[in-house]
């Protein structure tokens, strides 16, 4: 059982109360709070929605917080510290399995593949997956989407994560990259732009993409409590419309133009790296082109979780996914 699932009974009772979204500001503009699981170029459409004024066009003022990890992001949503969470869909399944009376609903897709890359400490000209056998592999947090996809891909290539390599997965999400940089592990699973920055600095080399290997997944979606959708569907619709506008803009514009728009979110990354990473994600189809969370991807997610031994129960697609809102804003 995941540590974050051990939330006290009293906190859960508080979390499932129906609490309205943040109050409207001046001129009828509504303030909304988004918690993103990490800061990553992987989430470029979200930053585009903010910077291009798509939220503003819908009368929404966004306060964006990086909540650093799926456990912390979901706890923030359940305790009403944020209104919307951008996080892996697996977290909604964990909450549902607890028996919540106010389940967390996936209502808008942002990414549709895994966003991590396999990074080697040493340069490898002709990488093959069997080269991981016997090495020390610095993975992601147990029960989180990156780690489950990582194990899924390893097994796909005939590697038993528990037997064929030394798997480290007890390091907090935010500390995985620093741990590798300080000398832990021969291979590591990293998000961008960290993977590319490591490559530029000579601290590692990208040898494979977990996104290309794992197929379509509702990897990162916007979600909120069911009570929020019931009580303030209009705001959720406006939110989704802003995201859809951004997705269309990202689809229709160049990686360079996208990089120019989102560069302010990555002060420590040069514009050339941002453009390269955006192009990498675009070329492998990581950015969802519309907000509908697909059923095939959902079932693939369940398979990945089940293979990792982390699926508490196979939750039906319609139970935790709302496609009505996304389909309506696309009309």
Q: Can you tell me about this structure?
A:
The protein is of the alpha/beta class. It folds into 2 domains: 3-113 and 217-330, Periplasmic binding protein-like II (D-Maltodextrin-Binding Protein, domain 2), CATH 3.40.190; 116-214, D-Maltodextrin-Binding Protein, domain 2. Helices cover 42% and strands 16% of the residues. The chain contains 16 helices and 10 strands. It has helices spanning 9-15, 44-51, 54-57, 70-78, 90-97, 145-156, 176-181, 194-201, 210-214, 226-231, 233-252, 255-262, 271-283, 295-307, 317-320, 324-330, and strands spanning 30-36, 60-66, 84-87, 104-111, 116-120, 136-138, 166-168, 187-191, 205-209, 220-225. The strands form 2 sheets. It has a 5-stranded mixed sheet with strand order 2-1-3-10-4, sandwiched between helices. Helix 6 (145-156) links the parallel strand 6 (136-138) and strand 7. The longest helix has 20 residues, at 233-252. The radius of gyration is 19 Å and the shape is globular. It starts with 8 loop residues before the first helix and ends with a helix. Mean pLDDT is 90; it is low at 1-22.
């Amino acid at each position: 059982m995941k540590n974050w699932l051990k939330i006290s009974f009293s906190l859960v009772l508080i979390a499932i109360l129906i609490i309205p979204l943040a109050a409207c500001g001046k001129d009828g503009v509504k303030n909304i709070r988004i918690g993103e699981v990490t800061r990553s170029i992987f989430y470029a459409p979200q930053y585009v929605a903010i910077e291009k004024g798509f939220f503003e066009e819908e009368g929404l003022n966004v306060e964006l917080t990086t909540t650093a990890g799926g456990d912390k992001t979901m706890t923030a949503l359940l305790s009403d510290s944020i209104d919307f969470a951008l996080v892996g869909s697996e977290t909604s399944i964990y909450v549902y399995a607890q028996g919540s009376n106010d389940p967390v609903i996936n209502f808008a897709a942002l990414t549709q593949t895994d966003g991590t890359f396999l990074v080697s400490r040493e340069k490898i000209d002709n990488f093959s997956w069997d080269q991981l056998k016997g090495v020390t592999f610095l993975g992601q947090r147990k029960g989180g989407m990156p780690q489950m996809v990582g194990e899924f891909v390893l097994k796909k290539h005939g590697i038993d994560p528990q037997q064929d390599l030394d798997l480290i997965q007890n390091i907090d999400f935010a500390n995985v990259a620093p741990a590798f940089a300080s000398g832990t592990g021969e291979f590591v699973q990293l998000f961008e732009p960290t993977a590319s920055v490591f490559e530029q600095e000579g601290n590692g080399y990208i040898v494979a993409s977990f996104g290309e290997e794992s197929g379509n997944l509702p990897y990162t979606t916007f979600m909120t409590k069911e009570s929020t959708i019931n009580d303030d569907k209009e705001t959720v619709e406006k939110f989704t419309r802003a995201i859809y506008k951004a997705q269309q803009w990202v689809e229709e514009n160049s990686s360079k133009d996208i990089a120019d728009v989102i560069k302010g979110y990555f002060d420590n990354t040069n514009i050339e790296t941002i453009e390269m990473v955006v192009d990498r994600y675009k070329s492998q189809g990581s950015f969802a082109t519309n907000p509908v969370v697909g059923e095939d991807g959902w079932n693939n997610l369940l398979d990945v979780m089940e293979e990792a031994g982390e699926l508490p129960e196979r939750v039906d697609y319609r139970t935790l996914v709302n496609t009505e809102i996304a389909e309506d804003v696309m009309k």
